[in-house]
Amino acid sequence: MRVAFFGTPAWAVPVLDALNRHHQVVLVVTQPDKPKGRGLKPAMSPVAEYASAHGLPLLKPERLKGNREFLEAFKAAAPEVAVTAAYGKILPKEVLEVPPYGFLNLHPSLLPKYRGPAPVPWALIHGERETGVAIMKTEEGLDTGPLYALWRTGIGPEEDAVALSERLRDKGIELLLWVLENLPHLTPRPQEGEPSYAPLLTKEEGRIRFGDSAQAIYNRHRGVQPWPGSHFFHRGRRVKVLRMHPEPGAGEPGVVLGVDREGVLVGAGEGVIRLVEVQPEGKRPMPAADWARGYGVGPGTRLE
Q: Are the beta carbons of 183 and 1 closer than 8 angstroms?
């Protein structure tokens, strides 16, 4: 089919690559170049880099709504269908109406649960044991459209947002190719169930809540990878936690119970958390035990 693709981050590149190998990609649409690095030089999105490297037609509009120049270029590309994967902008009605088969969205959740831009992190933070990926027909509402396909899967006990989102994307690619192959004969079905929203993460979501249970702390840690990551404060300075795991035990929340070769044990609302690897502000990653010895952290130390 003649396909237009809307996407931006590295996560979306394998989706575009699959479309490029199995269909005719007539247009790629991505976010405009953004400042990056120490010099803050404009840098292309990963999707733009792929499109440029493979000679695919590429547009990077600042806005879509009311953008006549973009709309005319989109119509001129004459896509039969469009696919979105982590594009990052709301699609207005005049854009949605261009392809005869409309827009398909690859969304890593069991819609209508976790509509919005961060479904995988919030599923992990909330301790979900099951999730999935949906191929949805896009409407004007936020992830409210009917579904062409829905796949369910359990969540591994140590799976973080990076691993889970990639696994769901890869299965989503299989579903997407199947839907495109059969699209003229498929009728999407309405979403069923109670909807929930998954907003973008903020830096504050990475703060460790030591009053929560050790399992809830670990669930949050898995959900905030790779950004904003987990952190606490010691003597007013931020300390990132790169690796941790929950253990049985008891202790006052946020208070260090002990330090050994395996790490630093900290009390939680229920159970205890073992800090395995940390990164103090302005320093390199290090074993948590080394950090504790170097910064005078021992039993009774309270972590903020």
A: yes
Dist. CA 48–CA 25, nearest whole Å? 13
DSSP-derived secondary structure letter, 86: S
Instruction: Give me the torsion for CA of 83, 84, 85, 87, rounded to 10°.
Output: 150
Bridge partners, 135 (sequence order): 106, 149
H or E stretch at 70: helix 68-77
Cα separation, 152 vs 242, in Å, equals 29
pLDDT in tens, the chain (304 residues): 999 999 999 999 999 999 999 999 999 999 999 988 778 889 999 999 999 999 999 999 999 999 999 999 999 999 999 999 999 999 999 999 999 999 999 999 999 999 999 999 999 999 999 999 999 999 998 999 999 999 999 999 999 999 999 999 999 999 999 999 999 999 999 999 999 999 999 999 999 999 999 999 999 999 999 999 999 999 999 999 999 999 999 999 999 999 999 999 999 999 999 999 999 999 999 999 999 999 999 999 999 9
